[in-house]
Design brief:
This protein is mostly helical. It has one domain. It is 36% helix and 6% strand. The longest helix has 15 residues. The N and C termini lie far apart (50 Å).
Length: 64
């Protein structure tokens, strides 16, 4: 059996376990949640609040 699978309308995809793919890409597990923090992402607290308000509105737009 081949290690690749033909996907309709797509390129052949090699079936690779997630842990092997992470190893190939040099991905390391995080040690602390602080590694994910990006305090410089928002220029201000207001920009962050505006983003959250827009996200909330978008997610609830079809609910009514």
């Amino acid at each position: 059996m081949s290690s690749t699978t033909e996907l309709p309308g797509r390129w052949p995809a090699e079936e690779v376990p997630t842990d092997e793919l992470a190893k190939r890409q040099g991905v390391e597990p995080i040690v602390s949640i602080d590694e994910l923090a990006q305090p410089e992402l928002w220029e201000s607290e207001q920009e962050y609040q505006d983003f959250l308000a827009d996200l909330y509105a978008t997610r609830h737009a079809d609910i009514a």
